[in-house]
Amino acid sequence: MDRYVDDWLTDLYAHHMLREAQAYYEKVRQPVVIRKAGEYLRFMTGGRYSLQSTFDGRQLFAVDGMQRRIPEKEWSSGLGDQIYLAIRISLAVAFSHQIESMPLILDDILVRFDEERQKEAIRFLADLGKEEQVFLFTCSEGTRRLAAAVQQEQAGETDTIHLFEISRGTIVSAD
């Protein structure tokens, strides 16, 4: 019987500690992540949208240029994908800054974006590349073409986009 009580107390304590960690994250870390994700979204949408959450952090809103709060159920799939990407990258950057800066490794994250959203996301990733190390992998010729176009646009302004291809098992520069 003592063994069961010990197991129950251990489980109860672990559950309590997880709730405390979650509460701490929601109060301290989540506002920073959402604020940064809002900045990322603003960049990716050319200033058309930013992001806000309710006080308790349980609901997100896209905020348009007229300061209207748009609930999640009214987001287009494209806007939802942009918000999801902004939050994921904001989380990754926040976590990497807590320990040691790590590269962001992104694999075909733009497949659901239309061409304009892809281009804006690539511009955003190039800008993020000034502060963070970003690797974007894709098998999409369209995404590669857009990355090359953004690279051309930013020539001389920044040197954060470098294109590579895998040819016969070897990584070669595509610049």
TrEMBL record:
<dbReference type="InterPro" id="IPR027417">
    <property type="entry name" value="P-loop_NTPase"/>
</dbReference>
<protein>
    <recommendedName>
        <fullName>DNA replication and repair protein RecF</fullName>
    </recommendedName>
</protein>
